[in-house]
Design a protein that fits this description.
About 40% of the residues lie in helices and about 15% in strands. By secondary structure, it is an alpha/beta fold. The chain has one domain: 3-Layer(aba) Sandwich (Rossmann fold), CATH 3.40.50. A five-stranded parallel beta sheet has the order 2-1-3-4-5.
Length: about 140
């Protein structure tokens, strides 16, 4: 069975490398697709621009979303995703260094399914990635 991709919005190159390494170290075989900002996230999800080929860029199983990105940040991106009828059920997991109460409130009110603080160590990131995978791919039932 073909694995459904996971879309990861992260503008920091070092964080992208660490996230990819964590998924690999955890043995998670889902393809990872990285977007640098909310504009690329929406282009991917709507199959626009460089992501126009729906077979090459299928709907992801979930979105891991950083909050503080250039061009269009995570807060705006959550709202835009939720305004698309076809994307209303797409799980959105915020993975951010922020723990500001207003960010939590805005994200959940806008439709995020989960808010996780980015760990400060690679070991913590491994635990986080494993937890995300265990919950969202082994326990939760996801819409197709």
């Amino acid at each position: 069975m073909k694995k459904v991709p996971i879309l990861i919005a992260e503008d920091d190159e070092d964080d992208r490398f660490l996230i990819q390494a964590a998924f690999e170290d955890c043995g998670i075989a889902h393809p990872l697709v990285f977007a640098r900002d909310g504009i690329e996230v929406m282009q991917y999800l709507l199959n626009q621009g460089a992501f126009a080929n729906k077979e090459a860029y299928p709907r992801p199983a979930l979105v891991l979303l950083d909050l503080n990105m250039p061009k269009k940040d995570g807060r705006e991106t959550i709202k835009e995703i939720r305004n698309q009828e076809a994307l209303k059920t797409l799980p959105i997991i915020v993975l951010s260094t922020s723990n500001a109460p207003q960010d939590l409130k805005i994200c959940y009110e806008s439709g995020a399914n989960c808010f996780i603080n980015k760990p400060s160590s690679f070991e913590g990131l491994l635990d986080t990635v494993k937890g995300i995978y265990d919950f969202w791919f082994r326990l939760a039932l996801l819409p197709r």
